[in-house]
Design goal:
This is Regucalcin. With about 325 residues, the chain is mainly β. It has strands at about 10-15, 30-35, 40-45, 50-55, 60-65, 75, 85, 90-95, 105-110, 120-125, 130-135, 140, 140-145, 150-155, 160-170, 170-175, 180-185, 190-200, 205-215, 225-230, 235-240, 245-250, 255-260, 265-270, 280-285, 300-305. It contains no helices and 26 strands. The strands form 7 sheets. A 4-stranded antiparallel sheet has the order 1-26-25-24, with no helix packed on it.
Length: about 325
């Protein structure tokens, strides 16, 4: 492993509302998204079918339950108080303040004819287009290969989502280069981080190539999961089953440093905090390893890495509030 540019980083956990001396624990945290305007971190608990928001100032966590099925993805919407969320294989606009099913407005469905597929990841690009990827049927930790797809959804064609990449097995981390000329992408079972040339105007990708194989750095049993980018254009990748977050220089195609956490199921990452220099890390827990990993499912924060994030684009949907 390469030497860190800053080995004096600090790791902490977000506290439970009920007991401030104990960490808040979730079944399978995912999709952390920072809202700079409200100083709020949104994230989901996939299997509990919950959407959470952490008030950075008070430290309190609020929860909204969705009863339709797995909730894997959440995104801000430009100029709107509504949120974009995925439930099973569909995208909805959601009102946090509206109770029950009335809070959800169906926007688009994907993977028709594959009733057991699930939306697994999604990010907006600089044009406000939403990139959303699916995974195939899952049993335990095993997912049927080559049944998923990476799509794009935008407001003027939402009824006709476009296929960007097929097949994929577990569509995961998505990040865009600072100059928007590249998209970085993860199909988890490949155990690699890949790059494509990206035409942001047309929403098209080409020139697929590998940036990093995680197995080259000793993570033989881990799969890359969620991903974000920092202000230097470096990638930060959560390693599911690897208990680590990798800091990657994609230009040099090398790992800069690996941040080890006291859990194995590290799921996703995003930058946040008032100065965008705190890396939030969601994690999950498994009944079989619960005794050995009492902190599994916690929401971690890594500080003093020497890096910081950038504002991330939001989904563009001009009539979101009245839709």
């Amino acid at each position: 492993m390469a030497t860190s540019v800053n080995q004096y980083y600090k790791i902490s956990m977000v506290s439970s509302n009920e007991n401030p001396n104990q960490p808040a624990l979730f079944l399978h945290g995912e999709s952390p998204v920072w809202d700079a305007e409200s100083q709020t971190l949104y994230f989901v608990d996939v299997h509990a079918q919950n959407i959470h928001k952490l008030n950075y100032i008070t430290g309190k966590i609020s929860t909204k339950h969705i009863g339709y099925g797995q909730v894997n993805v959440i995104s801000l919407i430009s100029g709107s108080k509504r949120l974009l969320v995925s439930v099973r294989a569909a995208l909805y606009l959601m009102d946090w303040t509206v109770a029950g099913d009335a809070s959800l407005r169906l926007l688009a469905s994907v993977d028709e004819g594959e009733p057991d597929n699930i939306i697994n990841e999604g990010k907006a690009d600089v044009e406000g287009r939403f990139w959303v990827g699916t995974k195939g049927p899952q049993s335990g930790d095993d997912v049927t290969p080559d049944r998923g797809t990476l799509y794009t959804v935008q407001q003027d064609t939402r009824a006709h989502v476009r296929t960007a990449l097929r097949p994929v097995s577990i569509s995961n981390g998505i990040a865009f280069a600072l100059n928007n000329s590249l998209i970085y992408y993860i199909d988890s079972p490949t155990q690699k981080i890949e790059a494509f040339d990206f035409d942001s105007q047309k929403g098209e990708i080409s020139g697929r190539r590998t940036i990093i194989y995680v197995t080259s750095y000793g993570y033989d049993d881990a799969i890359p999961d969620g991903m974000t980018i920092d202000s230097k254009g470096h990638l930060w990748v959560a390693l599911m089953f690897g208990g680590s977050v990798l800091h990657i220089d994609p230009d040099k195609r090398e790992v800069v440093y690996g941040y080890k956490l006291p859990v194995s199921r590290t799921t996703s990452v995003c930058w946040g905090g008032p100065d965008m220099d705190e890396l939030f890390v969601t994690t999950g827990r498994d009944a079989g390893t619960a005794a050995a990993e009492p902190l599994a499912g916690a929401l971690f924060t890594i500080r003093s890495t020497g890096s910081r994030g950038i504002p991330t684009p939001a989904f563009r949907f001009d009539n979101a509030d009245s839709y």
